[in-house]
Amino acid sequence: MTQMRFAVQTWGTDLDAVKAYAREAEALGYDALWYGDGLWPWTHEGWTVLAALATLTTRIRLGPAVTYLLGDAYRHPHCWLNSL
């Protein structure tokens, strides 16, 4: 039988709140946390935030809710892949 898993998603610029949210989600037993990647005023660059959250958590899976790769305002795929 497949086990049901639960995840939460967050956005925002208050990094202390995002860190507390991640710690609380892990403490409550959530399986994953998704942070919205975006180049908007109300969020930070998602991959950097996810890397920071990985240093604060031990079990919860982390991932991008959205990653923008195309368009003038976003990352070109070649640039994004070079950053990995």
Strand content: 5-15%
The global form is globular
Give helix and strand order, one letter per element, not per position: EHEHEH
Tell how many strands the DSSP assignment holds: 3
How many strands, what sense, and barrel or not for the largest sheet? 3 strands, parallel
Number of helices: 3
| Uncertain residue segments | none
In which range does the helix fraction lie?
Answer: 25-40%
Total number of distinct structural domains = 1
The helix/strand class is alpha/beta
Average pLDDT rating? 84
Topology:
Layout (H helix, E strand, L loop, with lengths): L6 E4 L4 H13 L4 E4 L10 H9 L6 E4 L12 H6 L2
Parallel strand pairs: 1-2, 2-3
Describe the model.
There is one protein chain. The protein is an alpha/beta fold. The chain has one domain (7-82). The chain is built from three helices and three strands; from the N terminus they run E-H-E-H-E-H. It has a three-stranded parallel sheet with strand order 1-2-3. The protein is globular and about 40 Å long. The chain starts with 6 loop residues before the first strand and ends with a helix.
Which keywords apply here?
three-stranded parallel beta sheet; 84 residues; 3 helices; alpha/beta
